[in-house]
């Protein structure tokens, strides 16, 4: 592997690069002799959908088929009793997670025995399972060295999930020296596998990353999972002929996600209804469905009706590029892809990037290829991330950057079919199967999923499970996962990490480190709780120097960052000001003497005397200035003053005359005899 990677680094042009360049470690050779229980194992794997890249089979009408777990596990039990180790391992995972009760009991000790038996026979999946159990301390004393050993054997045996776990350990420096190159090597192996399964016309697995912490704090309207009532409302609108509802539901059922299972039959129904109104976008999606079913003539018919729509343009380009239903024509493909990309079509951007990267139908140009891949990656296309990662890994069109390449390929690796386990764990948690959800999250956390790390820590922190016995052990495991999630950029984990350092949960109490974590959460994530905590620590001088003014500043910042923080910060500021006044009074009382009072009175009276004297002086100066300016135009000033005085006299005299007249009129009225 080392020489293979070195040869890849030394390549200077894309002419020498091929998607098959990434070496895969060969799986252990298995002898051709008949293995007992092979037939039962094959039937069980077929029922469980383990031979399908999507993990589940579709029925004839396009809906996802739910496995018959009772029959599948009965077959596995039969194969296991005949000594089939692969069947034992599959049963072991069911016993470990306990998510298929009552068909298989939740029994971690039995799971450990089955994995141990499978590992002795050289099964990579069993070795990886033991790595998880030793790393997390499930049914075994926690040992990172043993976990690393089992992960390494499993990864060398070609187990993708073990390769992910090993890559994350090298990337984060967990029980090994941090090495970006080693992490990149393993992430490339997994990303290659994911990219092959996606294919040229797929967009990759939709992985919902739901954090339980945020889900509890947010309103149901902000949930990434669609509410059933909302889906029914859109179905009602679609049935009434609403075009946007028909298109939206069609895309939702075609791709799946947000709590909705994929159903091609329903998607076709909604697109057909939308197409009746002549909508070209609906024709484009119907062509895509036909193309995925390899009905190229039908796809061509629909795409021709949607040549002004980006979906139709991309479809026509794809048919011409691959020669499906038409003669292969790269020029026509380029024309259609360009038209679609001008309207923002993600998959057209990807295809243009691939054409410029490989020089098919156009002149090879890595800069243009990079531009198109970047555009496609903004919409989350997994193959765009894959190609960007490979270009950064090999320095093609850009300066080689191991860190960027590893991050991009990590994103691709996490989009594999195993990402479905995140939603399975989420569903188990909300159904009340806390232990099963926790184990699934712990397994995914080992593979480097930040959401799984945060959710596992959240469950452990809430003390919702009896699976891990003592509180001390629970907090230790929570601390480890909060720390890993924080290192991957989750601000909420950074805040919890500060709390754990402050209170000494799962680690030694360290107020200084707690303040450092709060500072990062405040500066990077603008977390109002972290700002409030920093204010409190500055107020009391815990982990930070005591500074009342800085404490008030952080309290005010928290109030500005969140409306919910207004009341707490108002109370904190009131307490802070009260404390300042009390401290001032205490200090004054300590330094007070009667001589100070006497001196204060003398100083006060003296200051008032000086103030009054200063006012008289300023008034005298004003008269002096007026006298100096009045010497030149004294007659004008005198006439103005006399005119004002005369006006006042006339006004007063006129007022008095009017009053005298009113009194005389009243007397005459009183003396007049009554009629």
Please indicate the percent range of residues in DSSP E strands (runs of 2 or more): under 5%
Helix-strand category: mainly alpha
**Total count of strands:** 0
Mean pLDDT: 82
Q: What is the alpha-carbon Rg in Å? A: 39 Å
- Biggest sheet statistics: none
Note the overall shape: extended
Poorly predicted runs are: 1-32, 53-64
Helix content: 55-70%
Helix tally?
A: 32
- The separation of the N and C termini measures 135 Å
Put the structure in a nutshell.
The protein is mostly helical and 675 residues long. The protein is built from 32 helices and no strands.
Provide an overview of this structure:
The chain is mainly alpha-helical and 675 residues long. It contains 32 helices and no strands. It has helices at 2-9, 38-48, 69-81, 85-97, 108-120, 124-136, 144-156, 160-172, 180-198, 212-217, 228-239, 243-255, 264-275, 280-292, 296-304, 310-322, 330-342, 346-358, 366-377, 382-394, 402-413, 420-430, 434-446, 450-462, 471-487, 491-503, 511-525, 528-540, 548-561, 566-591, 594-630, 634-671. The longest helix is centred in the last third of the chain and has 38 residues, at 634-671. It is extended, with a radius of gyration of 39 Å. It starts with a helix and ends with a helix.
